[in-house]
Design goal:
The structure is a homotrimer. Chain A has about 425 residues and is an alpha/beta fold. Chain A is about 50% helix and about 10% strand. Chain A has helices spanning about 5-15, 35-40, 45-50, 70-80, 85-100, 110-125, 125-135, 165-170, 175-185, 190-205, 230-235, 250-270, 305-310, 325-335, 350-365, 385-405, 410-430, and strands spanning about 20, 135-140, 160, 160-165, 210-215, 275, 280, 295, 315-320, 340, 370. In chain A, strand 9 (about 315-320), helix 14 and strand 10 (about 340) form a beta-alpha-beta unit. In chain A, helix 1 runs parallel beside helix 17 (about 410-430), helix 14 packs parallel to helix 15 and helix 16 packs across helix 17 (about 410-430). The first copy, chain A, is globular, with a radius of gyration of 22 Å. The N and C termini of chain A lie far apart (about 45 Å). The model of chain A has no long low-confidence stretch (mean pLDDT about 95). Chains A, B, C: It is an enzyme of class 5 (isomerase). Chains A, B, C: Pfam families: UxaC (PF02614).
């Protein structure tokens, strides 16, 4: 057996702490999977399979959803060829951990046995509790639609978070205004009614223990302070829903107005505002569900400087999609008291980028302003392998930078690691 | 002697496979060098010497080309000072391998002996065959002008590839239209005649075994779907050559039209379309031949999203010049089935960038969508040191990521490496 | 004791050479500190403390400057939490070296003893000489306002450098025109008087041994060759100070005109022109002194291509603020004879970025065109820990790239390192 190294001991120290996961898409009413299809149906697998040549009809037939087992049967021959990816390694790790799987590679020969065995285990009483226990998961934040009733689950474990993409970018659609009216009892037409409705949402969410407001933003977005007189006239006339625009992308001033109104309420209600910056939606329209979005690295945090200045009381945990933007994020968090680095989002969530990005953050961002990681998971089974990947990288970087580089003892390195891993989330999102 | 490590064994596994080089500028009628001047006259050396202060007159005198030996004599004193560069290390490796050279550094004292000895070896019968054998080279793709007759060489070893820069960006010049008319018998004026001419080119090239169409593209280029009515009128009136524009850079709609017409023919003829994205031509006009181009990192693959969507049947092996763009390339290849990562091009072709770029590709792009490397060489002697550099980096990354990181056996790592190194090229360019 | 490795021996070789520091903000009339407040008042600490939540009133009270000891007392509780940053590690290293401090971490409990002890040592005769000797500092370049009399200090050790930000970006303000008139005796109104005034400055500076002209530039700046007729009219009419513009950022043509006039004088007087590219001033107006500036990575060296072409006789040592721009810098220095890579500036000056940037430069930029490092220090005490950080990274990269990678002997690696570390500065700035 190999001897335990100092880096191993740092990793053990990080692994000993329960996980606080500050951003996910978990459905608290169905937090774990019923079959492998819930796991391999995750967009990370379906989109890679699609990218690797699997026909869309094999994944999302136009005739309607596939039988779960059939979906997995369709995916496996392609996934076999994707074993180089870190995404597939998440699957291997979770299957080994939760289902006692003993293979390294999912193949045409072994998938069905795993499918059947895992389905049995998933159906067994206490499965969700076992996943939570094996994951050592203390708390996980959700992503809730603004009109989510937030009923029927333990909001202390499944912490609500107000997701606001629809409000900002789709308020001009009748659908969203109707949903908003239904949720708040307020018909939104002008600035006052918008504020009244948003206030209702914040009251509802904070009463249910929400700990953050969140939004994903396209790379071209630049929230400006004002809006021009045409838009002002529309808003004043109660015609907020009728701000002209050729398509959904041409109403930036209205978007800014709603966005800043949300920031005002974050300030008033003491909620951090998670900004997930840089996603272009629907770049590949023929992709699978959630596998259509990409980014444009021609984007700068300079676009948010006015916002950061205007809301010094609001904490902005910032995630960036383009890894090139991480360098700006480090610098902005080094200067702005209200900018906090947050996780490694989506296309940045691979070890090559995490290691580089993390190293720069550790070296130059105040240690109490770094939210190390979140799972972004749709099913609880993914929290474990994703956090495990991150902790291995974190342990390695801590050892190299602080023990090897600066002569720190292991305990001091672990202490810093735990702050990044969960202490900062605990403090910043305590509400 | 140092013990052979697992990483060494992976490297040996990669080195054992014959090289398939999917992009070069080899002249099949003179594939190897006649003197060291053919080697050190490569723009990588002349431009570095120029950059390091050697006068242009010493390299490309206005009075006409230098005697080969004089050119080398002029270059050596500057090259001495460039031994830190990886470019010079290519030279050292090839001189040691092909000419039995025993020095490490080219100097004023030792260059002449090497010049004379290598010239003798180059003139010996079977020299080209020996280079091919020592390189273990199976096949090399060329870069052929659209009016290349493709006669007089073994197109199975020297695989033709239709280079289309002139067609897209210079069709408005009489010279290019005349060359096109001569090559195809079609006078191009309107859209139909353009299509007829391009079809002739594709017929000619595919009959001669061409396996790809290729083009290099400036960072500002964004191939749009349509063109406006003014251009349409010119094209309809058979005046395609008279689309107005202040200079060669101001006809983007015409460029787009020709470019998309080429993509249509790639679709019809089943040829991959190599896109080499990001070069600004003639940024340093006073530079040496081929040492005048640079890039602008304010560029995004978003500019090509419409193209990728419009031609799902065409495979686009994409190379990027700005290393910052590699991060987008990884993400686009992860989502778009028809986007394939391709090599490490030009300014990105140094170990510091290759290692970072390769690591991200291995972790996140389907293993069968990665064309690992091409030499871009003008003379066959360069295939060996360039591929050797790449294989060393690949072996190191494979070992760290898969053996050390995920517990894979060495054979499985080698298998993945060979797919990236040649298997994918074999499959994607099989025609 | 650990055995000395080859990398250690390379480091020793680099450490043995006296430091030549080609860019700093040292005040030659007060080069070292009087109390710890001069050290911890450095913007790297005050801005990180501010970013970490310390109120601005605790650092820069509106009522006027704090007593030095009180400032340190205010900063320490926050700095305690910043010990992960490399900036704080500079402090630890300098305190241990210059004051015999034996702690690792500045805390509420130990800061006062250090404050008192260091103040005593700073007040002792010969303190500055001791710092210079312990640093092994041979020469340090200054940053001088254009109207600095440059009197009363040893210009051979404290080498003057003409800083020109005010001239380029504030010549339209009466204050700067008055300062210029006072310094040169020339009232600037039109192009001729501007040239006359600038000539006087260059005469004054070079007479005092200045070795460079320098400027920091915003990311949007693109020095154009010409200026339009409106501006020409203003300049011709002697109203250079009245070029219209909504604010200081709207006079780019005037800026270009002054900037290029400076370049003309660099050419005539044989001074390198240090370009520090990419800073946006006052992005966080509520930040502490010098802690308000950031950058925008949407910037390209393409913006300077015309300049590099127009002034082939001027050496441009280029620093970039956005680490993403380093990749362009490597390529531009590889092509343009007059572009030299220069140091690791400000937000790029952290090991994570330095290591990546340095590796690419070593591999692809002529070894005699790399100015490795400068301290940018305001007090001499910082030269040692900053250069120490850089030399450790340089030694590691030299060992990995050249000894391990290419089989070089240690001496040859040290020789290259010394060229990058000081030889190139010596040659390029010899005047």
């Amino acid at each position: 057996m190999p001897t335990e190294t100092a880096a191993d001991r740092i990793l053990s120290g990080l692994e000993a702490a329960p996980i606080l996961d500050p951003h996910s898409h978990i459905n608290p009413h169905a937090p774990t999977s019923e079959t492998l299809a819930d796991i391999l149906g995750y967009h990370y697998y379906t989109e890679l399979a699609r990218s690797s040549g699997l026909a869309k009809e094999q994944i999302e037939p136009s005739a309607g959803p596939l039988d779960p087992k059939q979906l997995v049967a369709n995916l496996v021959p392609t996934l076999e060829r994707l074993d180089n990816t870190v995404q597939v390694s998440w699957f291997t790790e979770l299957a080994q951990t939760f289902f006692g799987w003993e293979h390294e590679c999912l193949t045409r020969d072994n998938w069905e046995a795993l499918y059947d065995e895992s389905a049995k285990q998933m159906a067994a009483p206490g499965y969700t509790d076992r996943v939570i226990k094996q994951t050592n998961l203390e708390k996980v934040f959700l992503t809730n639609d603004f009109d989510d009733p937030l009923d029927g689950f333990d909001t202390d474990f499944y912490v609500p978070c107000l997701r606001t993409d629809d409000l900002v970018f789709k308020l001009h659609t009748p659908e969203v205004r109707e949903r908003l009216a239904k949720a708040t009892g307020v018909e939104v037409g002008d600035a006052d009614s918008l504020r009244a409705a948003i206030r209702k949402l914040f009251e509802h969410f904070t009463a249910k223990g929400a700990r953050a407001c969140a939004i994903s933003l396209p790379p071209w977005f630049e929230p400006s302070a004002g809006y021009d007189s045409t838009i002002a006239r529309h808003i004043a006339a109660g015609e907020l829903g009728h701000v002209p625009g050729e398509d959904g992308e041409l109403r930036p001033e209205l978007y800014s107005f709603v966005f800043r109104t949300l920031a005002e309420h974050c300030r008033e209600f003491g909620l951090p505002f998670d900004l997930m910056i840089g996603v272009n939606r629907n770049v590949y329209p023929d992709g699978v569900h959630q596998g259509r979005d990409l980014y444009d690295s021609r984007c700068s945090l300079k676009q948010y400087a006015d916002l950061f200045n205007a809301f010094p009381e609001v904490t902005f945990p910032v995630s960036v999609l383009a890894p090139t933007l991480n360098q700006e994020l480090v610098s902005y968090a080094w200067i702005f008291p209200n900018v906090v680095t947050s996780g490694h989002w989506w296309y940045s969530n691979i070890p090559a980028h995490i290691a580089n990005d993390l190293r720069a953050r550790l070296q130059a961002v105040p240690g109490d302003k770094q939210i190390g990681y979140y799972s972004d998971a749709y099913k609880l089974e993914f929290v474990l392998p994703k956090f495990a990947m991150y902790r291995r990288i974190l342990a390695k970087e801590l050892f190299a930078e602080y023990c090897e580089g600066r002569g720190w003892g292991e305990e001091r390195a672990v202490e810093l690691g735990l702050k990044v891993l969960r202490g900062n989330s605990e403090r910043l999102f305590r509400g």
